[in-house]
Specification:
Low-confidence stretches: 399-405
Helix content: 25-40%
Largest sheet: 6 strands, mixed
CATH topology of the largest domain: Aminopeptidase
Distance between the termini: 9 Å
Structural class: alpha+beta
CATH class of the largest domain: Alpha Beta
Number of domains: 2
Number of strands: 21
Strand order of the largest sheet: 1-2-6-3-7-20
CATH superfamily of the largest domain: Zn peptidases
Radius of gyration: 23 Å
CATH architecture of the largest domain: 3-Layer(aba) Sandwich
Length: about 400
Amino acid sequence: MYDLLKRKMTGVESELVDFASELIRMPSPSLEEQAVARRVAERMTELGFDRVETDAIGNVVGILLGRSSESTVMVNAHMDTAAVEAESAWTRQPLSGVVENGTLHGVGASDCKGGLAAAIYAGALLKRSLLPLRGNVVVAATVAEEKGGSAGIRYLMEHTLPSLELKPTHAILAEPTGLDLFRGHTGWAQFDVVVQGISPFEVDDAVQAISRDLELDPEATPGIEESRIDRPRFDNVGGYRRGVIGVSRRLAVMDAGAMCGRIERTATRAAHGAGNVNVAVQIPKTEQRFYTRQTRMTETRVEAWEVDAYHPAIERARQVLAAAGREPRVGKWTLPRLGMATAGGVLVRDFNIPALGYGPGIEALCHAADESVPVQNLLDAAYGLAALCHGYVGIPVCGWTSDEI
């Protein structure tokens, strides 16, 4: 059955690569995704999506309507890119979008504009193939993913999709997996350790002691950033001296609340000999102002999540990709640097939606100089995503039954 998708793929290959290159050439740091959002909405409309909507904070949603709304599969990719911190380390311009030797280069190529382009063209493949859909297919291009806190996907799930009378039953994250199936990752969160007292000397001594002990607290994992401690900030409030230490921590087993308690115990113990000071730990909230001028208060945290390796959604995905001629490995994201994450924590933990990752990007190339993605991965991802969507909400044709693919 998926031979039909493969045949339709040959007609859009160059168009898909050109579109991915175009997206890379458009700068879209977090909260400044307007140009990409406008182009994504235009392309979804040109490709024949049944509905295209842009919500109040700038997420773009393309919808292929099925025969009923009892099941909906959502493919999610974010429009923003990580900040380019050292352009001098790049051998090409970060916004070049150039294709050389079968590789597409530029910031966002792997994370996640390649995946975004593949997701949109997966929808186009389904539309052009005329394969019948029992349920709906939603391609969601979200904002503010790289800021942490998952504000874009959370607004989409809490407001946008309910207003469209859509409730996803499955989710696919077109994040960088190298065409493997990923089923989870660790999380991370930012914390403020607040030290306050009357004596500036006692507060300063306590801050130094706490910073030293926090540096020693996490167990080191080779090649993985487990903790980051910022330079302390000091001010005077109401006659008191206050010091604030910003701490970022990886969340593996415990959630952000449990980690907050652990950091507070470590900080309180470290400050014990410094004098009469109070110690408190909190997860700070920051205001995010989206390109639509809407604002939301957001905690900078992403909870760890995973879907069981034998969950029916994973088993189904493996069956579908095998029928499509693919044999993906099932694994998890490594996320070597703090600040890297996906929308999976929100979808799985907060909305109880089984989510998996399947995308063209290479995780090791994300948030790094000379980011790139193999062109063949883009093409294979569009085909694979279309097959997965049909496997979840499509109607078998040509004598096939759902258990035979």
